[in-house]
Design a protein that fits this description.
Order of helices and strands: HHHH
Oligomer: single chain
Distance between the termini: 24 Å
Largest sheet: none
Strand content: under 5%
């Protein structure tokens, strides 16, 4: 995985607030960082690991009929958004490197 990365301001300034105990915000933030780092990494295995985590979180999110685990939903959203932003950041960095 990438060692020196610049995380977007949304992660640095603080995690989003969800619910009264903010456990969803903590899970979102942790998922976002993991997804972003995998997206920044050129190794496809890092992306695969995040995709498997997203799948696992999606299964856990609705494992009881009629109930939704909103914390797992926030974790899944964080992983997904982080992976997308990390890939975009890597593409931007590669474009800048080609221009030099």
């Amino acid at each position: 995985m990438a060692k020196d990365i610049e995380l977007p301001e949304v992660v640095i300034k603080g995690r989003p607030e969800f619910g009264h105990d903010n456990s969803g915000g903590i899970l979102y933030s942790g998922g976002y960082v993991a997804g972003f780092m995998a997206g920044e990494s050129p190794d496809w295995k890092d992306d695969l690991g995040i995709i498997l985590r997203i799948s696992g979180a999606a299964m856990l999110m609705g494992h009881e009929p009629g109930k939704i685990d909103y914390d797992m939903q926030k974790y899944m959203f964080g992983l997904t958004k982080g992976l997308i932003d990390g890939r975009a950041s890597r593409a931007k960095n590669e474009e800048e490197a080609k221009k030099k």
